[in-house]
């Protein structure tokens, strides 16, 4: 059994951040669950370019508002209660709108799991779908 709190993970090496986001890695590859689970905040008024080469990613927006733009494709609004799933090669921009309370807080699941601070097992297998 694994029992962790967001606060204890936030105050450890499991918290990583950039100028546009913060991610608290609640589960990583070393936890041997076959996926990683993160609570990620996209700071208000920012845009983040994201392209994971070889991951399935499921993201559920818990708070805030913004949009996701798939490169070469559609743009979709994101608000609380929105789920989006990216399949392996979906290069995209994630934008959080400006304004009080607009930063987006999301629960994210990666398969294969992320291995560390910002290290992705890009050539890994998909243990949940094999």
From TrEMBL:
Catalytic activity, EC: 4.2.1.108
Reactions catalysed: (2S)-4-acetamido-2-aminobutanoate = L-ectoine + H2O
Keywords: Lyase
A Pfam family that the UniProt record links to this protein: Ectoine_synth
CDD domains, A to Z: cupin_EctC
Pathway as given in its UniProt record: Amine and polyamine biosynthesis; ectoine biosynthesis; L-ectoine from L-aspartate 4-semialdehyde: step 3/3
InterPro entries: Ectoine_synth (IPR010462), RmlC-like_jellyroll (IPR014710), RmlC_Cupin_sf (IPR011051)
Transmembrane spans: none
Protein's job: Catalyzes the circularization of gamma-N-acetyl-alpha,gamma-diaminobutyric acid (ADABA) to ectoine (1,4,5,6-tetrahydro-2-methyl-4-pyrimidine carboxylic acid), which is an excellent osmoprotectant.
NCBIfam families given in the database record: PRK13290.1 (NF009806)
Family to which this protein belongs: Belongs to the ectoine synthase family.
Entry protein name: L-ectoine synthase
Protein's organism: Enterovibrio norvegicus
Gene: ectC
